[in-house]
Amino acid sequence: MKKVTTILAAILLMAVGAAAQKLSYQAVVRNSSNELVPNTALTVEVSVLDAVGTVQYAETHSATTNENGLLVLTIGDGTVTAGTTVADVDWNGAAIQSVVKNGGAVVATITSPVNAVPYALQAGNVSAMSVADLLALVGSMTDAEKEQLRDALGVTGGGSSDPTTFVCGTSKMVDADGNEYETVQIGTQCWTKTNLRSTKAADGSAIPAGGSTTSNTEPYYYDYSSHSLPLATRGYLYNWPAAQLVCPSGWHLPSDAEWTTMEQTQTSMDVTGLGWRGDHAGKLAGEGWNSSTTAGAPGNASDPDHNASGFSAVPAGYCNGSSFYSAGDYAYFWSSTQLGSGYAWNRNLDYGYASVGRYSDYKGNGFSVRCLRDAEPGGEEPTSFNCGTSKMVDADGNEYETVQIGTQCWTKTNLRSTKAADGSAIPAGGSTTSNTEPYYYVNSAVNPAVYGYYYNWEAAKLACPTGWHLPSDAEWTTMEQTQTSMDVTGTG
Fold it and tell me: Is 274:266 a contact under the CB 8 Å cutoff?
């Protein structure tokens, strides 16, 4: 085992007992090669300093990192070496200093100001904090405070969508441009409450402005700038290739089936068919619609069920390149499910119809985009999925072992699914090559359970099941960086 020389620490301050204030301390331990150090016994000397650096309280712990290099201890349960109890500490301007030793050698000294942890001072004013209280506390934070807490805890990825802090209807989704979106719970699903207006894909790369360009293969966004609704309400319009990219990590463009699931919560009618179906359009409609007297229509704002779902659809219209249409009259939304080479399923609302349209349209058209929050990995609750023990299941029902690498959870074997996440078939490529249509390929000379299938990039984007995604370039780099101390951000 290499000598432990560095440690990345995170401190969360809260009351964990009714009799005395305590602090939950967590740290991820790495060696000089930036490798995680699992299952290693360490000594941690913890001191709470006052505003001028004088020790108010100190104690010593013997602790062992887990299989992921995580060190967990509770300050207040150690052997006291200075002061009396943690409850006597004056937290105003205080800092926590930890000295980590491997054997008798000091390998790291970390000093963390208490004010670097949002709401730390509140811990002195409560005797116990339930999970519900903690979630409410996090939900009341500003985005900057949440990021500060995430930094202090060493949490990466997911933004405000992290499952430990995200509460649908209270928390917001944040796109790659930094725009925030309110969210709404509809049945078991969590949706964005406004249309997307990001100019970037989830990985931070720019999506080109379409101007007068129409394409069903290259991504573009379009600005209906003459629309009466402000951009923050109407959002941009996206062709289907761009719609596939724009939802941030932890969210996705809803499939045709997921749209149907949402609609079915709003009507007792069958909405699985084609064309105009159901009587629930008004329940999905927000502001900005042209007036209608039809019961249940989006334009009938006086209907008692108007926007009962909270979905708040607005009539952003649509475009085909430089021509824009139907402001105030129609809303069109892409799904992720395609139909043939040039078409994909969508949903549309008309200001004077109580029904919602389910049609397929040309992928080059510009429609609005809503994002749907990912399910937990494998569709399981966060308390039941354990990376390294639980398995991922694809749309064919194949199971895949998982492995925790740093803060990320990866599949341990290559995919061999013949279906997209929504259950639609991915065509077998055979001898066909395409950079626009999805195909998978089978090497009959090898065992697919070991080697998996091959996918072109269009198919690779579709094959991961709900709750999982094809990793971005940045996510690959994050994983690689856990395995080496060298810089792996370059090319070649």
Answer: no
**How far apart, in whole angstroms, are the C-alpha atoms of residue 334 and residue 285?**
16
Q: What digits encode the pLDDT tens for the residues 326-357?
A: 999 999 999 999 887 789 999 999 999 999 99
Distance CA 370, CA 254 (A): 8
The rounded Cα 375 to chain-centroid distance in angstroms is 10
Mean pLDDT of 99-108: 77
Task: Round to whole Å and give the CA distance between 280 and 300.
Answer: 12
DSSP track, 112-145: EEGGGSTTGGGGGG-S---HHHHHHHHHTS-HHH
CA distance 118 to 311: 32
Q: Which helix (H) or strand (E) holds 262?
A: helix 256-264
Mean pLDDT of the chain: 82
Kindly calculate the radius of gyration of the chain based on its CA atoms and give it in whole angstroms: 26
Rounded CA gap, 366 and 368, in Å? 7
The 10s digit of each residue's pLDDT in 197-238 is 999 999 889 999 999 999 999 999 999 999 999 999 999 999
What whole-number distance in Å separates Cα of residue 186 and Cα of residue 164? 20
Predicted TM-score (pTM) of the model is 0.52
Buried b (16+ CB within 10 A) or exposed e, 449-475: eeebbbbbebbebbbbbbbbbebeeeb
**What do you get for the CA distance between the two ends of the chain, in Å?**
31
